[in-house]
Give the backbone structure.
Amino acid sequence: MRKKVIAGNWKMNMLPNEAISMITNLAPMVKDTENEVVLCVPYIDLFYSLLTAQGTNIKIGAQNMHFEEKGAYTGEVSGQMLKSIGVEYVIIGHSERRLLFRRDR
C-alpha cells in the first residue's frame, strides 16, 4: 500500500532561522510515522530547510514554480532549478485547488 503524504506550507512566513527551529522541533515528533512528511517552504528557506532536514524523514518542497526551464521571468524559479538543489516536491496552484507534485527519482 502506498504511503500517505502529509504536506504543509507556511505561505510567506518564517525567516530561515525560524524554519530551522521549526524543522528541528518537528523532526522528533514525526520520526516514527509511516507517512511521508513534506514541508513546502518559501524560496528563501529552501537551502536552510534542506540542510536541516537531512538525516530526518522530513522532505522539503517548494511553494510554487514556473513552468519554463529558463528565461526572462524575473523572480520565478524553474523545476530544473529546484531539482538542482534537491527539492523533490512542489505545490502547484493556490488556495483550494492545490496539487502536490513529486519529481521522478
Summary: The radius of gyration is 14 Å. The chain has one domain: 5-102.
